[in-house]
UniProtKB/TrEMBL annotation:
Name the UniProt record assigns to this protein: Bifunctional helix-turn-helix transcriptional regulator/GNAT family N-acetyltransferase
InterPro entries, A to Z: Acyl_CoA_acyltransferase (IPR016181), GNAT_dom (IPR000182), HTH_MarR-typ (IPR000835), NAT_camello-type (IPR050769), WH-like_DNA-bd_sf (IPR036388), WH_DNA-bd_sf (IPR036390)
Domain of life per record: Bacteria
Species whose genome carries this gene: Lactiplantibacillus brownii
Ranges for domain N-acetyltransferase: 146-297
Domain HTH marR-type residues, every copy: 1-141
Length: 308
């Protein structure tokens, strides 16, 4: 998505959300506090004591507007001012006993109103909205929740789907999808050992890699792929590092993988984690142009930058 396209979508959503908040302000706020006043009081309640400048910065409020709100609240015995003992030139704001009581009343009023607001929506719809809100917040603050988790056969369908999307975008032929599906099917039918690691970002699956036992006693690294929508989080590096750490913990030293020469980022990760290129062969089936398949073998205790 281009920045201009995003801005158009963002402004449209912002108008909708602003109207939604205005409706909340009319119906849920005003007694005892307006929406803006509630934000101020809640910030003070959360902090216990706080400098007015900190309130202004946290809420992105104009200092003049904040000053009028605080003056009004002080006259109503909702807040009290005190001298900062660490800086006599600085004022601290805290809630009075009445302010605490009114804030509690406001919380109950808003909670009741919001319960009515969300009641028409199913738990599934509320779950999707909650997840979307968290993603927006984490993206704008650049504080994502990234996890690498051990999964199993339950993620086989996801592995196939992600490969189909990623490699179709890379102009691979349908025969490649057959190759992936066939290998997954054989794995599910076999009694050989294996483990799958799945990366999630803010609760959404975003990448995967597996370590599968071979009939000759070696282990093959398979189905390593990261969703392009989540590039930039270091998922590929974390997935391979987790896999190698797992192999060390379980005394697995004979590992190998097959990749293609055009996947430069993946090859660099392999090299840094102890793999080295051992074999190459041309592939004329997967794309219109010939690509080079590469076998990489694992050597314990090694790791280096890869130069193609």
């Amino acid at each position: 998505m281009t920045p201009n396209h995003f801005i158009t979508k963002f402004r449209s959503f912002n108008r909708y959300y602003s109207n939604l908040l205005s409706g909340f302000d009319r119906h849920l706020y005003g007694d005892p506090f307006s929406l803006v006043e509630d934000r101020v009081v809640t910030t003070i309640k959360t902090a216990g004591v706080i400098n007015p400048n900190d309130i202004s910065e946290k809420l992105n409020l104009n200092k003049s507007q904040l000053s009028k709100i605080l003056t009004k609240m002080e006259k109503q015995d909702i807040i009290q001012r005190s001298i900062n003992p660490k800086d006599k030139r600085s004022i601290l704001i805290s809630l009075t006993t009445l302010g605490e009581q009114l804030q509690d009343k406001q919380v109950r009023t808003v909670q009741s109103g919001l319960n009515d607001f969300v009641s028409p929506y199913s738990p599934q719809q509320l779950g999707r909205m909650s997840k979307s809100m968290q993603i927006i917040k984490n993206t704008l603050t650049n504080e994502h929740n990234v996890k690498i988790e051990t999964t199993g056969l339950s993620d086989i369908g996801y592995i196939a789907d992600l490969h189909a999307r990623v490699y179709t975008a890379r102009h691979y032929h349908a025969i490649f999808q057959y190759y992936v599906l066939e290998s997954l099917a054989k794995y599910t039918q076999s009694e050989l050992g294996g483990v799958t690691f799945t990366a999630t970002v803010d609760g959404t699956r975003a990448g995967t890699v597996s370590l599968v036992e071979s009939t000759d006693g070696t282990w093959q690294v398979r189905w390593f792929v990261v969703d392009p929508a989540y590039q930039g989080h270091g998922l590929g590096k974390q997935l391979i590092t987790t896999l190698v750490d797992y192999a060390k913990l379980h005394d697995i030293s004979q590992m190998y993988l097959w990749t293609v020469s055009e996947l430069e980022a993946a090859r660099s990760i392999y090299a840094r984690n102890g793999f080295h290129r051992a074999e190459t062969k041309p592939n004329h089936e997967w794309k219109d142009n010939t690509i080079m398949e590469e076998r990489w073998d694992y050597t314990p205790g090694t790791g280096r930058q890869y130069n193609s």
